[in-house]
Each structure stands twice: as C-alpha cells, then as structure tokens.
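User: I'm preparing a small set of examples for a lab meeting where we compare how different chains pack in three dimensions. I only have the primary sequence for this one, and I'd like the structure in token form so I can line it up with the others. Please keep the answer compact; I'll paste it straight into my notes.
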Amino acid sequence: MNFAQAKQRFLEHIELGLGRSVRTVENYDRYLTYFAHTADIKNIADITIPAVHQFRLRISREKGIKKVTQNYYLVALRMFLKFLESQGEVCLSPSSIDLAKTGMREIDVITTSELKRILDTQPKESLNDIRDTAIIQTLFSTGMRVSELVSLQRDLDLREKEVTVRGKGEKVRTVFFSDIAIQAIRDYRSRRQDMEQALFVGKKGTSLTTRSVERIVAKRARQAGIAKKVTPHVLRHMFATTLLSNGADIRAVQEMLGHAHIATTQIYTHVSNKRLRDMHRSFHGLQNPKTRGPEI
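Assistant: Understood. Below is the structure token output for the 296-residue chain.
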C-alpha cells in the first residue's frame, strides 16, 4: 500500500475514530511525514527494522534531539503500524518499535519562597496588573493548563468555588478555586468595561492567547526578582508538588491535574520526595551540623 494514502487513512482515524484534537493530528502528520522523508519510505513494505534503525540514528545524530522527543516519532510510528494491523494490512509489527530509554523526566520547579514572592507581588493598580494577578492566582489555585485558562468565560460562576473545564483529549474535570483567586477574579471583572465574553482579555479587548499568558507569567516572575524561567506550566507543577508535599493523595492529585495515567503524576512525587530528603539531611540529627562528628 502507498504510504501517503495509508497515512491519510490513519490521520482520519485518530481524528474521527479516536476523537483526538486537531493539534494532535497535525503532530502525528508531521512526525510520520518526517519519518517517511528521512527513511525514504514510499510504500508500507518499505517500513522495515533496518529502515527504522537508520532513522533513529539519523534523528539522534543529525538533529541532536532529546530522547524524549525522539520517542514522539517512534510512538507515532507505532500507533500507525497498529492501525495498519487492525485494518488487515501486512506491515512491520508495532511491537518491534522500541522506545528510547530515558531518565526520570526533569520537572521545572521554583522554591516555595519564590512561589510566594510571585503570588504576593502586587504591581501598579492598572487593569492589566489586576488581570495578571487574577491569572497567576488562578493558575496556582487550580493547576490548570494554560490552554484551559484562556478558554474560561467571563460569566464563570464561582459561587461553588469550582468549575468544569475541558482538557487534553476532550476530557472533562473539575478544578477548584481558592478564596484569594476568586477575589482576584472578581476585582478584575468588576473593573472591565469591554463586552468580550472571554474571562481574560488583552489590550484590544480580545481573548488572551496562550503565548500572551506565558509572557504575563514571565513578567510577573521578573517583577518578583526571580531570574529563573517561570512559565504557566511551572505554576501547574508547583500546584502538584505543593499538594503532594502537604500529604494529598496521589490519586486525587491525578484527577485534579487531569492526567490519564498515574505514572505521569508520580513524576511529582520524586520532586516532593527530594525536598523532604534535603530537609531531612539539613535538620535531622541530635547534634548541630557544625559540631557533628564523623559519620558512621
């Protein structure tokens, strides 16, 4: 079978049959197209173990991309082959596609004191400053993804201190607002004079983009005197690690984050465990560290 035709059938399947987002379909299209171009694949029969091996060597050496990113290509290829198998096509077995081994995923975090400085920073009382405070408080309070934040509507009902959002894979979940976040949103809404339906808007009265929110978070971090790169996702990370460090059940945190798999949430336990370990090393013991004798 022709590769291009098979790829088109696969993309239609994951969009219509699996209900994946347009962005996900575009990503799979890009990964498979690059694979076919790089490995010179014209037909399904051209996808062989040697061809996949050479492709992996090329993206590793020539592109120099991280192993995690290399796996995106391999996952797309494996799903493509699974689809062909389900359609009765003769092709390379999906099980022959091994993913690159990666170490523990690095989580971007800031310290608790840095987080507090960001949350407590109150610049001038302009409408945009009030909006930015509401955005920061909402991100940390709810653990929302930035894409979920920009989709919030102005008529958001916060009387129950919780709302339903639609996240990755069109999955619906409930997120919870702190009293501070609710008050910040109310302050912002009460001062707006535009008619835009989005909860958070820019200077021209149009809904903020994810990129705009990223710039807002980075700006607020700079105002708080923090040199590290701080993104909306860092606030989501801090939402998770703060809950886990304070004893929250990991399954509950998984639900609040909207993770499909518990393994994704478990990444945050390593971050919180590291903090506890560092604290233990710093403060545990009967003697003052300066006078402590040799370790046994």
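A couple of notes for your slides: The chain has twelve helices and two strands. The first helix runs from residue 3 to 17.

User: Perfect, thanks.
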